[in-house]
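Components:
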Amino acid sequence: MRSRSALLVLADGRLPTGGYAHSAGLEQAIRQGWVTEIGGLRDFLRGRLHTTGLMNAAFAVAAWNAVDEFMLAEAAPARSSNAESTSESTSGTASTTSTAEALLTLNAELIARTPSPALRRIGAWLGTLMLRSMRSIHPHPLLETLPKDLQQPLVYGAVGRVLGLSDADTAATILHEAVTGPATAAVKLMHIDPFQAHGAIIDLAADLDEAAERATDFGRGDPAEIPALSAPLSDFAAELHEGDNVRLFAS
Amino acid sequence: MSNGKRALRLGIAGPVGTGKSSSIANICTALADEFRIGVITNDIYTDEDARFLKAAGVLPEERIRAVETGACPHTAIRDDVSMNLLAVEGLEEDFDPLDIVLVESGGDNLTATFSPALVDAQLFVLDVAGGGDVARKGGPGIGRADLLVINKIDLGEHVDVDVEQMLADAREAREGHPVLGVSRKIPETVEALADWVREVHARFVKGDHTPVDPGPMAPHFHADEDAEGGYMHTHGEGEAAHSH
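Structure:
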């Protein structure tokens, strides 16, 4: 397994998947006066990891587990030849279909837990970006069969599977991104220095690890039972941000 | 590699305020009857450049799309081109067939160039008002973009810049690669810019165009401290940059 190295690559903010243009709602929270200094940033990050971070990680785990074992095994040899993939066995086609259907069900469940239309659009856009990039970075037949416009956490789940990560590590990646994204954006948005911003992330390490475990438990169970851990102010912030004409970050 | 089956992707880079958007407006106006053109703009703050181009009326509005770059316009054209790539592909899909997609970078410094993963060719825009010495400073865009445009040449006398000298400096810095002096007030210069785009497109369609990556910093000259000679050198990959 090459999972440890692959995990570091997937979690690296430099992975070219468009995430750096987003602040996860922090820019608007600052604009509204909800976050004003380092203490506020720490609270913002903690809140994010225990709400949307945890929920998104749970959905990534669910997506990871929705990828049909049979399909993953069947798909690999087919990539070397188009002729082979067109004459794919019926069972292979069936598992492709069942994986796609399971992912679409998860997508509907996640959207149902995302009240803000703006956040739904951003989630689909970031999912599309990640899929587009990963198809170039690490071509794999599974990535060619995913439904369009999946929310980003579900794409993370499929990508984690393709890269040979465990579902728990995939959850940890989502949670890492959930706090490092806004923390690094904070350096451009607030009067704080980059050492404080990263200090805030390190201070959350135990919380992040624990949340990854909880997300893994939720994601391995019935997706309908994944809690709707949205953050109402983040939903408002996303809607307000769309109408804001002078902004550094897209969200 | 270029095969003419998709649109030619042409990048326009250069420092802020040198006239990237107006160069795009000039190109669109000159070529509107010959080519089906789309434009992607990259901005630091939302969609200012897209709005400028829409207001200029040089293209149908829906063919101009903005990409928001999260305060990092250089990243969006070089390190992480995913947003721009998806925007270009979306435009090509929605308005198929397009002949040319122009991608405008957000105004940045002299080091920002487009990744070969995003564009087939790129032009770099400087202007005389930015100072007559800028062309001599070199850098990947000035040195090795497919075309260097020295814009606003009509302003030379007002800003004490010898335009001919600046053009000569630019040609020297580029070792013979093309340089154009352009002013939107001098129609033949705009036509020369349009001709260059026609040539690149013709090569692209024939399959004769090979994208060139301006890449890292261009070879450049260091004057000796004692004003005795000096030396040319380049920076290898991964080598620590020094200040100029």
